[in-house]
């Protein structure tokens, strides 16, 4: 079985793929000081809780935080005897090479989203991922990542308001009742919620304007469905897109003898 690990700047998600479906998805805060042994205690406890018995033979990692990869490699080696594939490293093949400026290190999460989205939908896509950052990945007709947009993440924007302004509390993002807020929290929620609805609409419209073929828009990340309540922003929402992309890249490496 394949263990897929998606390590973002905020959260790290583990998911076990049995070849047909994901058996479970476990989430922990990204913390570079966590050791291989700590990962295993957490992981095995939750698997026992969910009564999942697995024999993990393969591990694939996508990490936007370089420092955590070392301990995840030790975790894979020590507890599963597996040498993990790490997306973005030279020995991890990609189905389609990105076409970007020389010297650009595209975030591995964006490469993985690209592979997952192309596998499901073919090319000419915009993938919008609401993580620590809100990213837009343009997937060309042939499946290559050809660029995109990086905007501050939703929770990051709310946190920045709270940190910078003494009178502004910490608030969670939600869809406000009205645009005109009649209290501080409602004002902040309105600014961020409708601000992001506008950001997504405008950026997608401008990407479409620069691109010479019709494009579909895929939303992913925890907040995609929240924003979709407000407006028709996406053709589809797929919460498991990054995990799916990891299985696609793993299978591609198996087929090509690299894993
Ligand atoms: N209505 C909501 N309000 C606030 N947070 C939410 C809401 N719905 C989902 N979330 C949170 O959004 C996050 C979505 O996770 P996702 O993996 O997409 O990005 P992330 O973990 O924040 O970022 P990264 O992948 O960059 O670490 C989760 O932490 C989840 O708890
Ligand atoms: C933009 C983030 C932080 C989103 O997770 C990540 O993809 C990243 O660190 N990217 C590196 C820069 C780039 O993708 O061009
Ligand atoms: K993510």
Automatic annotation (TrEMBL):
Question: What's the EC number here?
Answer: 2.7.1.33
The GO molecular function terms of this record are: ATP binding; metal ion binding; pantothenate kinase activity
Q: Where does the protein principally reside?
A: cytoplasm
Pathway(s) it belongs to: Cofactor biosynthesis; coenzyme A biosynthesis; CoA from (R)-pantothenate: step 1/5
Residues bound to substrate: 107-110, 184
Tell me the Gene Ontology biological-process terms attached to this UniProt entry.
coenzyme A biosynthetic process
Matching CDD domains = ASKHA_NBD_PanK-III
Tell me the organism.
Answer: Rhodovulum euryhalinum
Q: Which residues bind ATP?
A: 6-13, 132
Residues the record lists as binding K(+) = 129
- Which chemical reaction does it catalyze? (R)-pantothenate + ATP = (R)-4'-phosphopantothenate + ADP + H(+)
Q: Which gene encodes it?
A: coaX
Extract the NCBIfam families matched here.
baf (TIGR00671), PRK13318.1-2 (NF009844), PRK13321.1 (NF009855)
Q: Which HAMAP family match?
A: Pantothen_kinase_3
Q: Which PANTHER family match?
A: TYPE III PANTOTHENATE KINASE
Alphabetized UniProt keyword annotations: ATP-binding, Coenzyme A biosynthesis, Cytoplasm, Kinase, Metal-binding, Nucleotide-binding, Potassium, Transferase
Q: Does the keyword Endoplasmic reticulum apply?
A: no
What Gene Ontology cellular component terms go with this record? cytoplasm
Subunit structure, as described in the record: Homodimer.
What family is this? Belongs to the type III pantothenate kinase family.
Record: active site: 109
In its UniProt entry, what is this protein called?
Type III pantothenate kinase
**Cofactor info, note text:** A monovalent cation. Ammonium or potassium.
Cofactor entry:
NH4(+); K(+)
């Amino acid at each position: 079985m394949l263990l897929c690990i998606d390590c973002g700047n905020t959260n790290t998600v583990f998911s076990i793929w049995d070849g047909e479906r994901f058996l479970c998805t476990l989430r922990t805060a990204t913390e570079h000081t966590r050791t291989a042994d700590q990962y295993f205690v957490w992981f095995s406890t939750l698997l026992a809780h969910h009564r999942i018995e697995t024999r993990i033979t393969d591990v694939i990692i996508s990490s936007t935080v370089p420092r955590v990869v070392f301990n995840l490699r030790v975790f894979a080696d020590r507890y599963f005897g597996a040498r993990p594939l790490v997306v973005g490293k030279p020995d991890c093949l990609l189905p389609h090479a990105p076409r970007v400026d020389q010297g650009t290190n595209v975030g591995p999460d964006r490469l993985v989203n690209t592979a997952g989205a192309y596998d499901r939908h073919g090319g000419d896509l915009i993938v919008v991922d609401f993580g620590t950052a809100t990213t837009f990945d343009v997937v060309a007709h042939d499946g290559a990542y050809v660029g995109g947009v990086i905007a501050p993440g939703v929770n990051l924007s709310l946190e920045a308001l709270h940190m910078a302004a003494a009178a502004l509390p910490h608030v969670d993002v939600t869809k406000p009742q009205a645009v005109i807020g009649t209290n501080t929290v409602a004002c902040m929620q309105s600014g961020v919620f409708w601000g992001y609805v506008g950001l997504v609409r405008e950026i997608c419209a401008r990407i479409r304007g620069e691109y010479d073929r019709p494009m579909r828009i895929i939303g992913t990340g925890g907040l995609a469905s929240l924003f979709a309540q407000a407006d028709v922003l996406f053709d589809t929402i797929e919460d498991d897109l990054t995990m799916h992309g990891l299985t696609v890249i793993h299978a591609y490496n198996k087929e090509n003898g690299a894993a």
